[in-house]
């Protein structure tokens, strides 16, 4: 089996750019309106290994397993197969091979906290109190008053105050579901569950996947009968056993070469988040939702970044992302006052120049906003349809209403901006969001200081987030203006007078030699400057990519 060439000096994932694919919405090959694995294969050239590709290092695929789709695949009915909607195991093998041929690593989603209620394990478990699989899930008697065993609420049902327990009349007991009723929690205290689940990792590792994104790590290892605080709302999380389970996962990955685990550790406390990483024997990386949920403020981002770096020294490694399939997109979230497109460019520059591994969500590179979903088109049980709208590959005027995503009727409406933001429209436009992402990713790949170099935050005055990156004899400066007014950053702390402006988020800005003292940042403008006296190659605009 061909695997991408190992990176000699550091683990491949440190400094990598990982691109999240939400298979339902990426590309549809058979016209049923739902994206699929052959569709993804047909669009891999957008990502890597081809002229003009984005140049990312890896993809993370959201679940494509057989599923009743109550939570669009996060309710898994078989961990070792592919849902016919998405294709077949042979398609998954082909996808892995085609990705590897382009030097792209493949991470897949692993959903260990719960299965679908249609998983054969749960069907058996609910069939009788004596079934050998009864204890694979979390069953309890009701409370004395006939209600649920405790007051825990389901994550998806908070508004309606739905219980995290559902009564099953067949055996007159209640089962725990941290999420939807159709997503019963597995009982990780049972060693058989652990063994069976770790085997599902080996199944995919043997097929060549490079690692896993692990769903809701903070929910694993629930202790229902823990007395203190057990009645508290919201559902208590971040159980000690969760870390132990991550160590077992790591041990499985270590049976193979160069495989990696990134956790969705949804805790809004960076100390607890870092504690999953600092020992170096569990997760390699963890998504940071404190960062993702930071408001649009240079000071706020600076605080979060500085705090995390302090709490997570090596062997921990930072991971940054601003979007995924559960959150409003950056261009919308930060764009309440019409500045979304500009801010999304600043956000991209931050994400791709910070020390760490960067995760992008499909469509982020096109600057997509959230889609408007009319009430009759709503399908998600938790309001996440807007960020899951399908990718517009071509303008509807050329490709029809499916915008190159599908020849049929898309399962969710596309964004209203599909005509102007379609990938093919942005392809040759040097001012487009896509062009900016390509340049940033190219620069990062070609510049050791940016990819894995050191980082120091600077105090550049109000509204400006500024930091130095250093490595391989070069020093770079990143300065990002979070204000929608011009700012004159204080760069006296940089210690150097000259530099070369290599990239600005403002396509009208001239690149080339620059006197730092005179630098003014435009409204919502970010710049990337190579510090030091310019060399002979720095006189003109930065060279075009590839
Ligand atoms: C994670 C997923 C989300 C899913 C939930 C339950 O948060 O990202 O999409 O609904 O877990 O599996």
The CATH homology group name of the largest domain: Glycosidases
Q: How much helicity do the residues have?
A: 10-25%
CATH topology of the largest domain: TIM Barrel
Structure summary, number of beta strands: 17
Account of the protein in words:
The chain is an alpha/beta fold and about 550 residues long. It folds into 3 domains: about 15-115 and about 190-435, TIM Barrel (Alpha-Beta Barrel); about 120-175, Oligo-1,6-glucosidase, domain 2 (Alpha-Beta Complex), CATH 3.90.400.10; about 455-540, Golgi alpha-mannosidase II (Immunoglobulin-like), CATH 2.60.40.1180. Helix content is about 25%, strand content about 15%. Strands 9-8-7-3-2-1-11-10 form an 8-stranded parallel beta sheet. The chain has a 6-stranded antiparallel beta sheet with strand order 12-13-14-17-15-16. Helix 1 (about 35-40) links the parallel strand 1 (about 15-20) and strand 2 (about 60). The longest helix is centred in the middle third of the chain and has 16 residues, at about 190-205. The radius of gyration is 24 Å and the shape is globular. The chain binds alpha-D-glucopyranose.
Write the layout of secondary structure elements.
Layout: E1 17-21, H1 37-42, E2 58-61, H2 89-101, E3 105-110, H3 120-127, E4 139-140, E5 165-168, E6 173-176, H4 191-206, E7 211-214, H5 240-253, E8 260-263, H6 270-274, E9 285-286, H7 289-292, H8 298-311, E10 319-321, H9 330-333, H10 340-353, E11 357-361, H11 396-399, H12 418-421, H13 423-426, H14 433-446, H15 448-451, E12 454-458, E13 464-471, E14 474-481, E15 498-504, E16 512-515, E17 526-531
Parallel strand pairs: 1-2, 1-11, 2-3, 3-7, 7-8, 8-9, 10-11
Antiparallel strand pairs: 4-6, 5-6, 12-13, 13-14, 14-17, 15-16, 15-17
Helix pairs in contact: 4-5, 10-14
The structure holds alpha-D-glucopyranose.
């Amino acid at each position: 089996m061909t695997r991408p060439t190992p990176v000699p000096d550091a683990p491949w994932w440190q400094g990598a750019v990982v691109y999240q694919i939400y298979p339902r919405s990426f590309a549809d090959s058979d016209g049923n309106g739902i994206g699929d694995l052959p569709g993804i294969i047909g669009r891999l050239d957008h990502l890597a290994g081809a002229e003009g590709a984005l140049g990312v290092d890896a993809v993370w695929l959201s679940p494509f397993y057989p599923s009743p789709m109550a939570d669009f695949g996060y309710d898994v009915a078989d961990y070792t197969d592919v849902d016919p909607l998405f294709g077949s195991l042979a398609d998954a093998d082909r996808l892995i091979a085609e990705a590897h041929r382009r030097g792209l690593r493949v991470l897949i989603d692993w959903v260990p906290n719960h299965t679908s209620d249609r998983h054969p394990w749960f069907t058996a478990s609910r069939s009788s109190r004596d079934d050998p699989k009864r204890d694979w899930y979390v069953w309890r008697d009701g409370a004395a008053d006939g209600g649920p065993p405790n007051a825990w609420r389901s994550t998806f049902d908070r508004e309606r105050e739905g219980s995290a327990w559902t009564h099953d009349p067949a055996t007159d007991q209640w089962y725990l579901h941290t999420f939807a009723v159709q997503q019963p929690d597995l009982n990780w205290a049972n060693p058989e569950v652990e063994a069976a689940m770790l085997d599902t990792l080996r199944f995919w590792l043997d097929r060549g996947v490079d690692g896993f994104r692990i769903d809701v790590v903070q929910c694993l290892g629930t202790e229902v009968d823990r007395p203190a605080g057990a009645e508290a709302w919201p559902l208590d999380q971040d159980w000690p056993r969760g870390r132990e389970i991550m160590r077992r996962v790591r041990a499985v990955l270590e049976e193979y070469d160069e495989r990696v685990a990134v956790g969705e550790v949804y805790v809004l406390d960076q100390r607890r988040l870092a504690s999953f990483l600092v020992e170096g024997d569990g997760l390699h990386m963890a998504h940071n939702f404190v960062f993702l949920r930071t408001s649009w403020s240079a000071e706020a981002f600076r605080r979060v970044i500085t705090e995390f770096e302090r709490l997570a020294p090596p062997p921990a490694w930072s991971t940054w992302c601003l979007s995924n399939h559960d959150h409003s997109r950056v261009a919308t979230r930060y764009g309440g006052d019409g500045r979304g497109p500009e801010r999304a460019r600043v956000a991209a520059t931050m994400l791709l120049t910070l020390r760490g591994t960067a995760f992008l969500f499909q469509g982020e590179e096109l600057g997509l906003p959230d889609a408007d979903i009319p009430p009759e088109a709503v399908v998600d049980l938790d309001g996440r349809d807007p960020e899951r709208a399908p990718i517009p590959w071509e303008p509807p005027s050329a490709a029809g209403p499916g915008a190159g995503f599908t020849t049929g009727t898309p399962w969710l409406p596309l964004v209203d901006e599909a005509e102007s933001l379609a990938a093919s429209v942005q392809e040759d436009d040097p001012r487009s969001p896509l062009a900016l992402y390509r340049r940033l990713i190219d620069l990062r790949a070609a510049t050791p200081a940016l990819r894995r170099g050191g980082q120091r935050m600077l105090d550049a005055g109000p509204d400006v987030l500024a930091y130095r990156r250093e490595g391989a004899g070069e020093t770079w400066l990143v300065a990002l203006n979070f204000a929608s007014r011009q700012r004159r950053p204080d760069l006296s702390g940089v210690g150097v007078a000259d530099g070369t402006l290599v990239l600005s988020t403002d396509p009208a800005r001239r690149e080339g030699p620059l006197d730092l003292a005179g630098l003014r940042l435009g409204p919502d403008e970010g710049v990337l400057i190579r510090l030091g006296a310019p060399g002979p190659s720095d006189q003109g605009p930065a060279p075009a990519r590839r």
